[in-house]
Every structure is written in C-alpha cells, then in structure tokens.
Amino acid sequence: MHGVPHSVRVIVFGRQGAGKGTQCARVAAHFGVPHVSTGEILRDAIARDTALGRAARVVLDGGGLVEDSLMISLVQGRLGEQDARTRGYVLDGFPRTLVQAAAFDEMTAARPAHCAVDLEVPREVVVARLLARRREDDTPEAINHRLDLYEAQTSPLIEHYRSRSSLRVVDGVGTQDEVFERFRATVAACLG
Ligand code: AP5
Ligand code: MG
C-alpha cells in the first residue's frame, strides 16, 4: 500500500427522487471520497449566475437535460481535480445518456469505476417524495418530464453497465439508514 492511496470510484443511477443525493453524500463521506453531483454543480452555477448557470437555468426549470457536450466537459474537468484523481468519486447524476456513458467509459478507460449502482425506487414512491420536498424545480410538470426522460434516456444505461458486469442494484425503499447500510455494503463488496 506504500504511497498508493486507496481510491473508490462509483457511479450511481436512479430516477429523480430515488435518494441519490441523500445517499451519495453519506457513502462518499463514509469512504472519504468526493461526492460529485452534476445537479448540485448546475444549481450552484445558477445561484452564482455564471455563464454555465445562465445556460442551464431554463433547462433545469423545464425538467430537460443539459447538452451532452457541456456535461461531458464539466465532469471531465471535475474528475481531473486532485481530490478525485487521488481519492476517487461517488458520481451522482452522470452519465445520463448513452453519449455521456461512451464519453465516461473513454475518460475512465485507464482506471474504470469499481461499480455502477442502480438505486432502485418505483416511480410512484419517488413522486410522493418529490412532492413533499419542494425544491424550486419540482413542479409536477417538470417532475413528470424528468421521470419520462429517465425511462427513455437513462434506463438503457443500466443495461449498458449490466453487460459490462459492473452493475449492482440497491433497493432504495426503506429508511435512509437502511438504504445507506445496503449501499455501503454493496460498494464495499465491489472493492473486493
Ligand atoms: P439532479 O440534481 O441529478 O436531479 P435528479 O436526478 O432529477 O434527482 P434529484 O436530485 O431530484 O433526486 P435524488 O435522487 O438526488 O434524491 P434526493 O436525495 O434529493 O439533476 C437536476 C437537473 O440537472 C436535471 O433535471 C437536468 O436538467 C440537469 N442535469 C444533471 N445532470 C445532468 C446530466 N448528466 N446531463 C444532463 N443534464 C443533467 O431525495 C429526494 C427526496 O426524498 C428528498 O426530500 C429526501 O429527503 C427524500 N428521501 C431520500 N431518501 C429517502 C428515503 N429512504 N425515504 C423517504 N424519503 C427519502
Ligand atoms: Mg440529487
């Protein structure tokens, strides 16, 4: 182990409201690696009114997806930072399209993710959670649009990572502590 820091590299799928943000923050803290949430990066850019934020605001409000090329360079930049290069990442919200998945596989070809986690929660359960949460972009129209986009664009990625044999399904229904324990154990098992 001399001089080679142990790193943990995980990508996380799950429909909107599955608890990715909630659980990824805990899992990342547990393993001591950065939690990289593309949604949070975009919301932060919107709050600070940067050029990225101005480009993303209308898309987020409507529940659509930000352009692939913009997201790919954003994630490539973030994963290239020192903390992610040495410690790894829990990547929440990317890849979300097949184009993003191809770019992700290419940018991590030398050091692939240890596993892809699908945090599985049925659609009716996430709708109830989201309506209770009331984030600014949580209008009923935007929620439904995002859930439709997830089925159309992001679900196929689950098959992509299943065939690469790195996919682990974690049941996301239960208390936050129960889900955390399943998620943590799943990641630990991937690290072998
Ligand atoms: P993003 O922020 O990634 O949003 P999302 O995937 O739609 O998911 P959410 O953040 O809404 O849900 P979550 O799964 O994180 O659940 P949470 O922990 O909050 O993306 C936002 C937007 O950015 C996208 O719509 C898109 O426009 C853009 N974007 C981002 N990445 C992109 C990309 N790669 N390409 C293109 N565009 C991109 O939990 C939800 C609620 O449930 C909370 O209130 C929580 O307290 C509660 N909860 C959590 N766990 C439990 C539990 N076990 N039991 C009961 N309640 C729970
Ligand atoms: Mg989130």
Question: How many DSSP-defined strands?
Answer: 5
Total DSSP helices: 9
The major β-sheet equals:
5 strands, parallel
Low-confidence stretches: 1-5
Structural class by SSE content: alpha/beta
**Widest beta sheet: strand line-up:** 2-3-1-4-5
What would the principal axes of the Cα set say about the shape? globular
State the end-to-end CA separation.
15 Å
Ligands bound here? Answer: BIS(adenosine)-5'-pentaphosphate, magnesium ion
SSE arrangement, N to C: EHEHHHHEHEHHEH
Average predicted confidence as pLDDT: 94
What's the Cα radius of gyration? 16 Å
Q: Tell me the quaternary state.
A: single chain
**What is the helix content?**
55-70%
What's this, in brief?
By secondary structure, the chain is an alpha/beta fold. The chain is about 60% helix and about 15% strand. α1 (about 20-30) packs across α9 (about 175-190), α4 packs parallel to α6 (about 100-105) and α7 packs across α8.
Break the fold down into its secondary structure elements and pairings.
Blueprint: E1 8-13, H1 20-31, E2 35-37, H2 38-47, H3 51-62, H4 68-79, H5 82-87, E3 88-92, H6 98-107, E4 115-120, H7 123-133, H8 140-163, E5 167-171, H9 176-191
Parallel strand pairs: 1-3, 1-4, 2-3, 4-5
Helix pairs in contact: 1-9, 2-3, 4-6, 7-8
The structure holds BIS(adenosine)-5'-pentaphosphate and magnesium ion.
Can you put this structure into words, describing what you see?
59% of the residues lie in helices and 13% in strands. It has 9 helices and 5 strands. A 5-stranded parallel sheet has the order 2-3-1-4-5, sandwiched between helices. The two termini are 15 Å apart. The model is unreliable at 1-5 (pLDDT under 50). The protein binds BIS(adenosine)-5'-pentaphosphate and magnesium ion.
